[in-house]
Amino acid sequence: MQTPEALQQAKPSVVETQAQAQIQAQTQDVTDARPPEADGMAAEQSNANINGGVNGDAQKTSPEEDPEISGDGTEVINSDGYLEQHREYFKQRYAHFKRWVKVIDENEGGIDKFSQGYKEFGLHVTAEGVRYREWAPGAREASLVGDFNGWDVNANPMERNEYGVWETVVANTASGEVAIAHGSRIKVTFVSGNGERIYRLPAWSTYVVQDLSKSPIYEAVFYNPPNKYQFKHKKQEPDTDLRIYEAHVGISSPEARVATYKEFTRDMLPMIKDLGYNAVQLMAVMEHAYYASFGYQVTSFFAPSSRYGEPDDLRELVDTAHSLGLSVFLDVVHSHACNNVEDGLNQFDGTDHCYFHEGGLGRHELWNSRLFNYGQHEVLRFLLSNLRYWMDEFGFDGFRFDGVTSMIYKHHGIAYGFSGDYNEYFTGNTDEDAVVYLMLANYMSHKVYGRLVTVAEDVSGMPALCRPVSEGGVGFDYRLTMSIPDMWIKLLKERRDEDWDMSHIAHQLTNRRYQERAITYSESHDQALVGDKTLAFWLMDKEMYSNMSDLTPLTPAIERGMALHKMIRLVTCGLGGEGYLTFEGNEFGHPEWLDFPRAGNGSSFHYARRQFNLVRDGMLRYKYLYAFDKAMMELEAEHRWLSAHDQWVTLKHEGDKVLAFERGGLVWIFNFHPTQSYAGYRVGVAWPGKYTVALATDDTRFLGQGRIDGNVAHFSTPMEWNARPNYIQVYLPARTAVVLRHD
After folding, report:
1. Secondary structure letter of residue 181 according to DSSP
2. Which of 106, 402, 432, 471 is flagged as catalytic?
3. DSSP annotation of 370
4. pLDDT value of position 415
5. Quick one: pLDDT band at residue 605, thresholds 50, 70, 90?
6. Strands (E), 654-713
7. Which of 106, 294, 451, 668 has the highest local Cβ count within 10 Å?
8. Which residue has the higher pLDDT, 200 or 428?
9. pLDDT of residue 531
C-alpha cells in the first residue's frame, strides 16, 4: 500500500474555494459544531446544480420554514434528563444539520432533488444519446471507453465543469439507435494529476459482472434491457410490529453454490410468508468483489450483486414479496468502502481522497477499507442518492444501516468499551460529520417516503439515536439489541444451566433506552460466522449429526437443546424489543456455522449454504422447531405485543429459575430450571378472571412431552402477589415456558 505522502492530491480550484467562502458567509449566524479540521464542505464544492447554476424553477424552502426542523435540537432532553449536561452539544449538532439543509435548499433546489443524483450522474439514455456524468475533481482528462468505441480514449472525451464534474454524450447511431449495446463493457479513463492514465468502473454503475475464470476484477456493463421489469404491485408499508426474516440470497439453497434472485423468489418468499414473518431483510445485495466479505466490502454501491442474477431479477423479487404482504429492507453499507482500486471507489480520480478522507483518517485499520468524508458535498449527494436509488428503482421499504458505531466515532469502536457514561457519546470522540449525514439520511428518507423503516446497527448505545430528527435525534426508527445474542452465547459457553441468573436475563432483555425502539434477536448472521456457531449447535453440538431423526432415541442433549432453543427464542421475542429478527435457517435450529469460500477452506461452499432440506425432511426433528417458530409468529400477529406499551416483569426467582412477565395482554411464564417442575406455582397477574393457554413450548407438536394441558383454564384469586392485584396458579414443568391469554 502506498503511503499518503506518495499519492498525488488534487487541490481545490479558485472557484471551489470561493464556493466554500459563500457557504460560510451564508451560515455565519449558525454555530459551527464541526471541529476545525472538518473541511469536507470545502473541497470540490458543487454549490449549485451540476450545470453550474440553481434551477430557477426549483421550490426552495429554508430550514426555518420546515416545521419538522424548526427547533434547536434540544427537545430530546425531555425524554432523557441525563442529556441536559450536553444541551449545548445538541444545539451545535442541530445547527450543523440545519446548515447542510440550508445549503442544499439554496444551491440544489432542496433535499428531494439533491438526493436524486442517480438520475443525473452515471449513464442515462436520452433522446440525443447516452449521457454520462461523473465527479472526479482530481483528474486532468477523462473519456468514456468500452466495446462500443473499441476502447479508444480519444473517441468520447469528457468536458469538466468548475466543480469537477465531467460529462459526455455518446450520440445515437445514424439510424437513431442507442450507440452503446445492452450488455457491452464500459469504463471511464482518467489522466490523473500526476499524468498517469488510469481506468475505473463508473462510480454510479448499475450492473457489474465478474468472470472468475479470467480475473477476480469486476467489469462494468451497460444495462439497458429492451423490456425492463415493470412492477405489478404497490410497495408494502412496513408493519408496526416488525417480524423480520434476515436472509442472504447467495446462501439460500442447500446446494453448494451461489443461489439466485429467482430461486429466492420461488423458494424462500413463500416459506417466509408461511412462517408468519412480515418483512425480509436482504444482506449482501450491494455489489462486493469478495464473496467471503458477506457483502460488507462494497465496490459498486448502485449495482445489485450480479452473482445472483440481473437487476431485473431483484426487482421481481421485491415485487413478489410485496404481493405476499412482505416488506423488504436492504442491508446498506455506508460505513466504509472496499479498498479495491480497479473495480472500487478507492483512488477513483487518482487521488487518495475524492470520496474519502485522505491519509490515515480515511482508512479503517481493522477492515482494510476506505472511510467516507461525510462532510463533503458530493459525498452526501452520492450516499443520499444511493438510498433513493434502492427505494425508487427497486422498491425497497427500508434499510438496516451497517457499522453505525464505526461511522459515528472517530475511534470506530476499535478497542473501545462503552460504559454508558454520556461523555463517551458527546465529546471529541464523535465524528459529527457522520452523525449529521445519518440525520440527513433519516430526514430525507422519512420526508420523502413517510412510513419507511431505518434500523441502526450500533453497539455503543448512543442516546437519541432513535429519536426523530425534529427533536434533535439522529432519526432511526429502531436499533438492534446487539447485547442480547451475545448474552445467550455467553450463557451457553460459560454457565451451567442451574447457574443462569434470571435477574441478569431480564435486565439484558429490557435494558433499552426510553422511547427508543429496538429490534431484538437471539442470534443473527454474526453469531453463525466461522469461529462461532448457531445456538442450536451450541446446545446440541455433534449429536445433531446422529440424533435428529425421529427414528433415533431422544437423548438428553437433544431434549435439552430443543427445549432451550424454543425458550430462548420465545423470551427474546416476548421481552426483548419492539421488533423481532431471525436469520434464515436459525428458526428451525440450523446446525454448524457459516463460512464462505476462501483460500483458507479450499474455496468450499459446504458451509456457505442453508440446509432447508433438513426441515423439509419429515423424518427429522428440525420440523418441530420450524413449527414452534411459526406458532410464535402467528401468536404475535394475533396479539401484537411488539408494539404494545404494557410490559411488566412480575417475577425473577433465582432459586426456582422462574421468570414471569406481562406484555401485550398476555402472561408469560418461564421455568428455566433443568430438573425441577412446580405444581400450583403462584404468579401475580394484573387482570382478574380466566386464563387459558395460548402457547406452550412443551406441546407435543413441538417435540415437547405434553405436560401442559391446553384445555385447562386458570382462574385468578383476588390477592396481591408479586406486586400485582391477583394471582393464578399454574403447573410449570422443568425447562418449559407457557404463554397465557386473559379471556
Report:
1. P
2. 402
3. E
4. 87
5. very high
6. 658-663, 666-671, 678-685, 690-696
7. 668
8. 200
9. 66
pLDDT in tens, 80-119: 999 999 999 999 999 999 999 999 999 999 999 999 999 9
For residue 159, with 0-12 CB atoms within 10 Å meaning exposed, 13-18 middle and 19 or more buried, which class applies? exposed
What is the CB-side half-sphere exposure of residue 362 using CA atoms within 13 A? 25
Alpha-carbon distance 490 to 266, whole Å? 37
- Phi and psi dihedrals of 583, rounded to 5? -95, 140
Active-site residue flag, 457:
yes
**What are 322's three cell numbers?**
410485496
- 245 strand-pairing partners: 280, 582
Catalytic residue among 457, 523, 587, 698: 457
The pTM (predicted TM-score) of the whole model is 0.91
Q: Is the pLDDT of residue 130 over 60?
A: yes
The residues, any chain, with a CB within 8 Å of residue 644's CB and separated by 6 or more, are: 663, 664, 665
Alpha carbons 103 and 107: distance in angstroms, whole number: 6
CB-based burial label for 292 (10 Å; 0-12, 13-18, 19+): middle
**Residue 546, pLDDT score:** 97
Read off the C-alpha cell for 293: 466479505
Residues 6+ apart with CB under 8 A from 380: 100, 104, 114, 374, 437, 440
> Please, where are the H alpha helices in 47-166?
87-108, 111-114
Going by C-alpha positions, the residue among 343, 309, 315, 310 that lies closest to residue 328 is 315
Asked if residues 379 and 440 have their Cβ atoms less than 8 Å apart, the reply is: no
Q: How do beta strands 279-283 and 327-332 pair? A: parallel
- pLDDT tens for 443-479 read 999 999 998 999 999 999 999 999 999 999 999 999 9
Q: What is the pLDDT of residue 529?
A: 74
Q: In what order do the strands lie in the sheet with 129-135?
A: 122-125, 129-135, 165-171, 159-160
Q: What is the DSSP string of 494-522?
A: H--GGG--HHHHHHHHH---TT--EEE-S
Query: Which amino acid, one-letter code, is at 670?
Result: F
Residue with cell 490523473: 192
Alpha-carbon span 563 to 160, nearest angstrom: 66
